[in-house]
């Protein structure tokens, strides 16, 4: 055993002992009424989040309260920090992944990803795992899931729980290259899913007049470009212009992301006009100006002479647009008047 490994073992034994008299602990966590003692150096060296948490500015000497996790799960997390080992189970893996993400411990997240990549995924559990872990960066897990779907012929749209799954998971399913179901079957199931979502919205709505078709359309609009061949089968939901716009996006869509000062992103798709795309790419990482709460970027481009074909819609909250002087702006749909809409 190397000296480094021996030192790690000694630190871990000291942590395991939880002996306040001889353990030289300088920080404590209160989890569900129980205390866990630790060392600031061990925590600060592995995570910027933990470093800020145990700093003198944050920590005034009182135990730091942990509300979101169980005592057992948080103890396992600290065990990994001290020893590089952790006991993963089907019961705790979701909490472990969330701990790794919240405290930004990349090595722990990778270990979670490795554990998930070795699991067996079936029609009974695949949507549960996809739904619970869709917001985390777990490339090995995602690769293993889609490999299992392909090799085991798992028809996700026929699986239990599909009707309750999130739009994010539905989008991943329709984007999957190795579909084992027909596009027509996929459209029928997704239409059924959208109708189910709309019905739940109707039950929660306080409006006396509820337009079911509009609600279904809102659920489907982002999804349909990926299954466009069967859009016309439910053409009564969409006007000619709306169908045209959806099908236009199928061919060469470009995704634009704008991030606000709080780090919250908003996404949109626009047609692949080379001049407009080049203009927006030139603004990469550029902070916006602000006028009366409306963000804008000085670009001074020539606004297209042809009128924009894009029209305002109730289900789209924010739009990118050109001012008539050629600057790029972004505004809520209620503030859009007589400008060249991009998306």
Automatic annotation (TrEMBL):
- SMART domains, from UniProt? BTB (SM00225)
Against CDD domains, the record matches this protein to: BTB_POZ_ZBTB_KLHL-like
Annotated BTB domain ranges read 25-90
Q: Which residues form a coiled coil?
A: none
InterPro entries reported in the protein's UniProt record: BTB/POZ_dom, SKP1/BTB/POZ_sf
| Protein's recorded name | BTB domain-containing protein
């Amino acid at each position: 055993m190397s000296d480094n490994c021996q030192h790690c073992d000694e630190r871990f034994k000291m942590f395991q002992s939880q002996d306040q008299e001889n353990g030289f602990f300088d920080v404590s966590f209160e989890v569900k009424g129980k205390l866990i003692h630790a060392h600031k150096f061990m925590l600060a060296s592995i995570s910027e989040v933990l470093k800020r948490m145990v700093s003198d500015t944050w920590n005034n000497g009182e135990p730091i309260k942990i509300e979101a996790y169980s005592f057992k799960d948080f103890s396992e997390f600290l065990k990994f920090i001290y020893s590089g080992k952790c006991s993963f189970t089907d019961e705790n893996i979701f909490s472990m992944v969330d701990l790794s993400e919240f405290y930004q411990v990349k090595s722990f997240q990778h270990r979670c990803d490795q554990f998930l990549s070795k699991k067996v995924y079936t029609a009974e559990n695949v949507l549960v795992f996809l739904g619970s872990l869709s917001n985390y960066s777990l490339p090995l897990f995602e690769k293993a899931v889609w490999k299992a779907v392909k090799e085991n012929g798992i028809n996700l749209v026929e699986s239990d729980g599909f009707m309750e799954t999130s739009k994010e998971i539905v989008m991943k399913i329709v984007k999957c290259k190795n579909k084992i179901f027909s596009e027509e079957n996929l459209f029928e199931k997704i239409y059924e899913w959208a109708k189910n979502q709309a019905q739940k919205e109707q039950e929660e709505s306080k409006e006396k007049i509820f337009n079911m078709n509009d609600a279904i359309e809102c659920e489907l609009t982002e999804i349909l470009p990926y299954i466009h061949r069967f859009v016309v089968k439910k053409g009564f939901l969409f006007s000619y212009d709306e169908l045209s716009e959806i099908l236009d996006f199928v061919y060469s869509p470009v995704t634009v992301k704008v991030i606000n000062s709080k780090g919250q992103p908003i996404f949109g798709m626009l047609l692949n006009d080379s001049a407009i795309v080049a203009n927006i790419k030139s603004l990469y990482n550029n902070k916006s100006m602000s006028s009366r709460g409306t963000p804008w970027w000085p670009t001074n481009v020539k606004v297209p002479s042809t009128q924009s074909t894009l029209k305002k819609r109730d289900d789209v909250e924010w739009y990118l647009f050109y001012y008539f002087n050629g600057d790029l702006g972004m505004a809520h749909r209620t503030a859009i008047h007589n400008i060249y809409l991009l998306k």
